[in-house]
Amino acid sequence: MREKNANRDSANVADAPAVGRPRDRIVETAQDLFHRHGIRGVGVETIAEAAGTNKMTLYRHFDSKDELIIEYLNYKGKKSEEIWADVERASPGKPAGQLYAFVERAARFIVEDDRGCDLANAAIELTEAGHPGLKVIEDFKSRQRERLTNLCAAAGASRPALLADTLFLLIEGARVSRRSVGANGPSANLLQTSRGVLASFGVAEPKL
Known about the structure:
Radius of gyration: 19 Å
Oligomer: single chain
Largest sheet: none
Number of helices: 9
């Protein structure tokens, strides 16, 4: 159902792009505003105005705000896949190297962007039963967990599934801690802790 009310107070529309085709502008603007202000903090009127268009044009391309949210979530999942691809290219055929590179990227990302995981944030906001976005998030997180488990197994970890879950929880927890406790809290030790966990499961850090 189309959203009738837009929360215009939380978003700075002047920061969003207004070039390119209308659909592309709408998608790019929504991605930026959802990331900075949250899904529920931004209404379709704000998105349309920031994209340099109007609600009629927005609804011509997207039947509802929910459809735009799905587009956003799929985009975030695709960006994560690109990070995995970068990690694999940096250490081809070296699963241990990929694991250490993965936790390093995760730790760096948390420092660079304290908004946390967009998909995890969205899951909290999309609490309504049956919202299609929740399925997108669940499927993505499940694939990520499976991928991490397979990589731990390929690296020769003693208990790959447990190691994968431990790393998963460390990273997710660090994101929350960064926002709730601050930069000097437990999240500051994510990289060191993750390296220790990898070593304790028999995955040695590759020598340079």
